[in-house]
Amino acid sequence: MLIQELELxxxxxxxxTKVDWAPHLNVITGPNGAGKTxxxxxxxYLCMSRxxxxxxxxxxxxxGESSFMLKGRFNGSIRADFEVSCNYSRGDGxxxxxxxxxxxxxxxxxxxxxxxxxxxxxxxxxxxxxxxxRSFLDSFISQISTxxxxxxxxxxxxxxxxxxxxxxxxxxxxxxxxYLEPWNKQLVETGSRIVAKRHEVLQNFKSxxxxxxAMISGMNLTTGLEYQTFCEPSSDPKEIEExxxxxxxxxxEKEIExxxxxxxxxxxxxxxxxxxxxxRRFGSQGQHxxxxxxxxxxxxxxxxxxxxxxxxxxxxxxxxxxxxxxxEILLQALQHHKGQTFITSxxxxxxxxxxxxxxxxxxxxxxxxxxxxxxxxx
Length: 378
Known about the structure:
alpha/beta; Rossmann fold; Glutathione S-transferase Yfyf (Class Pi), Chain A, domain 2; 2 domains; 6-stranded antiparallel beta sheet; 15 strands
């Protein structure tokens, strides 16, 4: 899958920008604040319906405006030329269109154009708490499994309503059990499918992670990951359900006391290892940085083998943290990857030493005050 053309209107510091992209490598350079990240964040919006930088749509509207519009023309092997647009206004909210047809749900966009993003914030994946790793895993799997995404949305709704019942119910304990029973059934069935899918994907993901960490680090360290959930993980949801019911019953009084659902995949954790050492507790800054990079490269290669269309890969200002040898290894890997890649960089990395910018397959752009210019051949 690739994006051929992108148009931005009142998005961040871009009032009106239109860019044609190369099908392979697109390098975007310019000073900080020039509008480089805004370009690839706009692409992310058209793939995932949200920003990978800002927490709210209202923060990306150009100063003094009340709305923004994004439009992209895509092409893939499964779905030929098609257009995705995103319109947001403070009064009407956000709407996504595919070929001018509105999507009923924003979630329907997920997986249409698979995308992988590597940014400086990815250090949170290994340094911070379980929520960061669950978010990574959920986004990862949702792009390759519509069933998983649907279960995830349903599970959040079920848990929210179950929590409301635990918080607001004022009747007797036996009556509460009766009211909880249908919610427990939905929680167990949906949550068990989520755990089973996470287990299945992570089991397959391990080999990709090990291979990409070895490539980018050049070190003879064995990577590992441990999926921690409320029961023994399995790829069969039915094997999980029995344990799930038992734990709900065991923790019933505690849930009433705390007024919240305590058992389920919303509390899962993924532990990363280098050799036998837990990365989060014992890893150096350099190891954390390379591990996060390896996670995203492994996601890219997993998608490339599992999906019919190659994903779009975006690297936002990551080369400044890499030495010359790691830069060369990464650029060589990106050249071998046949999909479309976007690289932003504020630092003067000698890309021309590794990439031939022919204006056809690979292009070099400069951004200054939200104005984008293709530099042509290097």
